[in-house]
Amino acid sequence: xxxxxxxxxxxxxxxxxxxxxxxxxxxxxxxxxxxxxxxxxxxxxxxxxxxxxxxxxxxxxxxxxxxxxxxxxxxxxxxxxxxxxxxxxxxxxxxxxxxxxxxxxxxxxxxxxxxxxxxxxxxxxxxxxxxxxxxxxxxxxxxxxxxxxxxxxxxxxxxxxxxxxxxxxxxxxxxxxxxxxxxxxxxxxxxxxxxxxxxxxx
Length: 202
What we know:
Number of helices: 8
Mean pLDDT: 88
Low-confidence stretches: none
Distance between the termini: 27 Å
Structural class: alpha+beta
Order of helices and strands: HHHEEEHEEHHHH
Largest sheet: 5 strands, mixed
Strand content: 15-25%
Number of strands: 5
């Protein structure tokens, strides 16, 4: 809904809240989402409207897809929002959870680094600024990525890709939530992942 609102910051909050509740009913027909989380979503939406009402946002793309070839690997992903003010490419990634990273950590945040590197390939020659937008607190923490920063991201990604390709034995992650997004668990290749995914879906 934040993405939809950005195209029209004059949008009526009551209408947006009606759509919010309709989406909750659609995605959670069995009412498993806790009321506290639904209220948190409502508050985040209201705060976003209050902060940006009447503004014209220079949106270039929403849910911007990208493919990034690094070493022997292909990284695919989506960026929540990309803006362009005529001078700088501005990347925004929504965060709805309670945990926040530090502002000092933004320059070395790998997610932001990947997004910045991908957009530097798609829009060469423009400065790239990438930020994490924490909707609960309305805090925005970002970094203007220099060419040196982008080179460092690419070197780090290459080493990670090489490690993955050359590793023969992968241990099971201690974080069961990761399994829900893992291709090995969803394909049935990892028995532990299959078990954890089925358990979460019950």
